[in-house]
Design brief:
The complex is a heterodimer of chains A (about 325) and B (about 325). By secondary structure, chain A is an alpha/beta fold. Helix content of chain A is about 40%, strand content about 20%. In chain A, the strands form three sheets. In chain A, strands 3-2-4-5-7-6-12 form a seven-stranded mixed sheet, sandwiched between helices. A five-stranded mixed sheet of chain A has the order 9-11-10-13-14, sandwiched between helices. A two-stranded antiparallel sheet of chain A has the order 1-8. In chain A, helix 1 packs parallel to helix 8, helix 4 runs parallel beside helix 5 and helix 10 packs across helix 11. In chain B, about 45% of the residues lie in helices and about 10% in strands. In chain B, helix 9 links the parallel strand 6 and strand 7. The relative contact order of chain B is 0.17. Classes of the chains: A alpha/beta (about 325), B alpha/beta (about 325).
Chain lengths: ~325, ~325
């Protein structure tokens, strides 16, 4: 298996899908500048620098998708999706339904999110729950290099609009990617570690905190299962429920703020469908309900750390 | 019914305008009489819709907004299916899921009706990009109002279309009203067309209540879009004779202004011109009006006979 970074995995996925389907194109501010290899391979028509105007980029993608192209747009930082929200939510997400199924919107919107670069709250805001609440959209947030590649390939082939969030802290992480064409299905969680006593449910960079926590807990005789959701929408409800039924305890861990976040959804799901299996309440470990600070120590404090997961797990099991 | 293509006959323009007027007055009457969902009409703007659509070929695509009935009917939409859509019936163009505000009809080349004001401008560049990149013939016509021209997306759309050489005919139906606010309260400029010049986009302003003039200017503009592969902005100066959304008593409208525009109503104007030119006599026009009335009556009968969608349809068509 080859060892590459997340950025390289994204470029490999783009290159492979652009080779397979002439209708795939990449648009965004600086995409042609930053990915000269793709321009060389596929030409300026298919790798387009755009003005710094997220709304028209997303609207253009929606219109183009409806008429048969498969655009991938890079909107840079997740908070910038505010400018593209109308086009993503009101157009790409709703117009298939409103048209009675006359049109499809096969587009992918990439954006970086999460703490790690000290860029402050207007460049760093975990907004995934906003979009999970909007009908017609799909939403993925991988944690491993192989998943970045395999999920991006699936997202490009998906006939629906997919938001693809890249956790900034993972953008240059390296990892192994299988040889050949490997698709990771959207809507399927991955069990990163098997366990018996509790389930740690997470996505993106906090999966690593959960894995490190599980390692520590194992030393104390507590066996933690770690589920990486990978897809926020659709959510792999079966995987979550099967694991919680097995362990009887769950902690949901994510960096986005707590109120109405993905953790609330997972906790409610478990309460509705696996209440009888629960030996303790479902806990949530999340970022605070505050804008992200720029100062590095404060920014790191924003992110649920392995120690906090361990402490919560001890409380839950004992 | 499919895409309607127009020959040179000016009578066809009057006939299309009469159908739109009769349809919209019926929709407004149904709202008043029987609580049918309200609509945003474009009564008074028929010449802009018909004049532009009559200039289109079969390959052209249309994006429109909440005042779309005129564009759809001019393009050949079945008034029965359109009214059924307004009434939320299964026989509508979008199975009753759109209602009056977001009607699209792929078979007519009417795509992606957006009622977020300006949303259609954001999508038009993408539709045009697909036309260009997939080497398909046909320009993209994007109808919007003076209200949308005050949105940031108008400027973003024109800039990108000019930059990328996209085949878009932007048609601003400047009807003086932005929902309940007069245009004079929201912009200093007298018109929209001049703004296009700043983006390097050719533009023209036309009397939007003169259907023949609109068709002539739109034909030339489309030739420019197709020939040069560049966008063009056509501003049609017209007036919204009814309110924003039915019911609307228009108490906020200056009576003198309304009267002045009523005197310029595009339908009697075209009727008088046809009579004066000898192309039609009074009997022919009476017959035309009777035929249109019968068409609208049949449309209403079709719409009320069409069932509501099955409740299982509530969650279909969300994902492909």
């Amino acid at each position: 298996m080859a060892r590459i970074t997340v950025q390289e995995a994204i470029e490999q996925a783009l290159a492979e899908e652009m080779s397979l389907d002439a209708n795939v194109l990449l648009m965004g501010e600086g995409v042609a500048t930053k990915r000269p290899g793709l321009v060389q391979a596929f030409g300026g028509e298919r790798v387009r620098n755009t003005p710094l105007a997220e709304g028209i980029i997303a609207g253009t993608a929606a219109g183009a998708a409806a008429m048969g192209l498969r655009p991938v747009i890079d909107l840079l930082f997740a908070p910038f999706l505010c400018y593209a929200m109308d086009e993503l939510v009101n157009s790409a997400g709703k117009l298939r339904y409103l048209s009675g199924g006359q049109f499809e919107f096969p587009l992918v919107a990439l954006a970086m999110t999460g703490a790690g670069w000290g860029v402050g709250a207007q460049h760093n805001h975990n907004v995934e729950a906003w979009f999970a609440h909007a009908p017609g959209l799909k939403l993925v947030m991988p944690s491993t290099v192989a998943d970045f590649k395999g999920l991006l390939k699936s997202a490009i082939r998906d006939p629906n609009p997919v938001l693809f969030f890249v956790d900034i802290a993972l953008a240059y992480a390296a990892g192994e990617v299988p040889e050949g064409e490997v698709l990771v299905p959207i809507g399927r969680a991955a069990t990163r570690r098997e366990g018996e006593d509790l389930t740690l449910i997470s996505y993106a960079k906090t999966v690593d905190a959960c894995l490190r926590a599980a390692e520590t807990l194992a030393g104390e005789g507590i066996s933690a299962e770690v589920i990486d959701l990978r897809s926020i929408k659709p959510l792999d409800e079966a995987a979550i429920l099967a694991s919680v039924r097995k362990t009887g305890r769950a902690i949901v861990v994510h960096e986005a703020s707590r109120t109405c976040g993905v953790g609330a959804e997972v906790a409610a799901l478990v309460a509705e469908h696996a209440f009888d299996a629960l030996k303790a309440p479902v806990l949530r470990l999340t970022g605070p309900d505050a804008p992200t600070p720029a100062s590095y120590p404060l920014e790191q404090a924003f992110v649920p750390q392995a120690e906090a997961v361990v402490a919560a797990a001890r409380r839950l099991v004992r | 019914m499919g895409i309607r293509l127009y020959d040179e006959r000016p009578e066809a323009l009057l006939e299309a305008m009469l159908l739109i007027r009769a349809y919209e007055e019926k929709a407004a009457a149904l709202q008043a009489e029987s609580g049918t969902p309200g609509t945003c009409t474009a009564v008074g703007q028929e010449a802009a819709a018909v004049g532009v659509v009559a200039a289109l070929g079969a390959d052209e695509l249309i994006l429109t907004n909440h005042r779309s009935a005129g564009h759809l009917l001019a393009r050949g939409a079945d008034p029965g299916r359109l009214l059924a859509e307004v009434m939320g019936r299964r026989g509508g163009y979008c199975k009753g899921k759109s209602g009056s505000l977001h009607v699209s009809a792929r078979e007519l080349g009417v795509v992606l009706t957006s009622t977020i004001v300006g949303g259609e401008l954001a999508l038009a560049t993408g539709v045009a990009l697909a036309q260009k990149q997939l080497r398909r013939p046909g320009a993209v016509v994007c109808f919007f109002g003076d209200g949308a021209a005050c949105e940031g997306r108008f400027h973003e759309s024109l800039n990108l279309a000019a930059l990328w050489g996209l085949p878009v005919l932007y048609v601003c139906e400047n009807n003086e009203w932005q929902a309940f606010v007069h245009r004079r309260e929201t912009m200093l400029a007298e018109g929209i067309a001049g703004w296009a010049g700043n983006y390097g986009i050719d533009h023209a302003t036309v009397d939007g209540n003169d259907v023949e003039q609109v068709r002539a200017v739109a034909t030339a503009a489309l030739e420019s879009v197709r020939g040069r592969g560049r966008p063009f902005l056509l501003e049609a100066r017209t007036y919204r004779l009814r309110g924003h959304f039915e019911p609307d008593d228009q108490a906020y409208v200056d009576a003198d202004e309304l009267a002045a525009w009523r005197a310029r109503d595009p339908l009697p104007r075209m009727e008088a011109r046809l009579l004066a030119s000898g192309r039609c006599d009074a009997a022919a026009i009476t017959a035309m009006k009777a035929a249109v009335a019968a068409q609208v009556a049949a449309a209403h009968a079709f719409a009320i006979d069409s069932p509501y969608p099955a409740l299982e349809e509530l969650t279909t068509d969300v994902y492909a």
